[in-house]
Specification:
Na+/H+ antiporter like fold; 317 residues; 81% helix; single chain; mainly alpha
């Protein structure tokens, strides 16, 4: 019972803020233009600054776990291969195959994963998750692009090169995380003025990210074959975290690090998968449905995951 109550205290605040975003949109207090600009502000400025601040001001040796990173990368690779194989086994069309695959393993680490980890493990967990994310995002982006390219063949080479550049070399979240890691490795403290400024400017970043998710949420985006979208969501929210748990344990990970890995693996499908599906001849309608369904059901799946983590003694309550 205690584990379940702790879970509610972790999950409800996060999804209450998402619900607030949906309410604000419904009441006309925020509109599409506000949400679009806010999302750009978050993606290009606030989230990179938050990651740099939290990681750069932390001790790298204390917060970085190489085995955890390798285990998560192994899980991502297995998730990409198994989800693509599942799409092949079901005979999905090329446009659905890559879209299904990336939707089944590409999680929303920044907008949902970081708030959940922060709620579950506090600042210590957030810093570990941020460092881990800096290593995972390039792999996630690369595997997503490869899944779509493999499904559709060698078309639009210029688009693929641009996406690889944008998603791997120019991604603001990667730049923010890696810059924070580099500063942490330098051993230099952040100047007090810089630290105070970053604390002020990044204070509302995660709540604003959750409000943006809620404001952009619309059941009208449920389109196309909902059976495929439901299967991809089930894989993402249930099979993928379980696979991650098994692989991570093989790498000898336990305690908070194990809990963080499971929570990040259990995040709903990232909205960026819709953009890739459009750019690389996937199925944007299917991608949209996977994003919506996985987000809806992630409230229940996070409750289950966190309850199990609490029962296993992997939450501090």
């Amino acid at each position: 019972m205690q584990a379940f109550l702790t879970t509610l205290n972790i999950v409800l605040p996060v999804f209450a803020i998402i619900g607030l975003g949906a309410l604000l949109r419904n009441k006309g207090l925020v509109g599409p233009s506000f949400l679009k600009q806010t999302n750009r502000l978050l993606y290009f400025i606030l989230l990179p600054l938050l990651l740099f601040y939290k990681i750069g001001s932390a001790n790298f040796e204390t917060n970085f776990n190489l085995n955890l990173t390798l285990g998560m990368l192994a899980t991502l690779s297995l998730g990409a291969v198994s989800s693509y194989g599942l799409a092949l086994a079901f005979g999905y069309s090329p446009e659905d195959r890559g879209t299904f695959s990336q939707g089944a393993f590409r999680g929303n680490l920044a907008y949902v994963g970081l708030p959940i980890v922060l709620s579950a493990y506090g600042e210590a967990g957030f810093t570990k998750a941020g460092m881990l994310m800096g290593c995972l995002v390039p792999a996630i982006n690369l595997l997503s692009i490869l899944a779509l390219i493999l499904a559709r063949g060698n078309r639009h080479s210029a688009t693929k090169k641009r996406l690889l550049r944008d998603q791997l070399l120019c991604n603001p979240l990667i730049i923010g995380s890696l810059s924070g890691i580099a500063w942490s490795l330098s051993g230099l403290p952040l100047p007090d003025t810089v630290s105070r400024s970053l604390r002020l400017v990044t204070g509302a970043t995660l709540p604003l990210a959750l409000i943006t998710i809620g404001g952009a949420f619309s059941l009208r985006q449920l389109q196309g074959d909902l059976r495929k979208a439901g299967l991809a969501s089930l894989f993402k929210l249930a099979a993928f975290p379980f696979l991650n748990f098994l692989v991570i344990r093989l790498f000898g990970i336990h305690g908070m690090d194990l809990g963080i890995a499971v929570l990040l693996a259990g995040t709903p499908t990232a909205a960026a998968s819709y953009v890739l599906a459009q750019e690389l001849d996937g199925n944007p309608r299917l991608s949209s449905s996977i994003i919506i369904l996985s987000t809806i059901f992630s409230a229940a799946s996070f409750t289950v995951l966190l309850t199990l983590l609490g029962i296993a003694g992997l939450l501090s309550y």
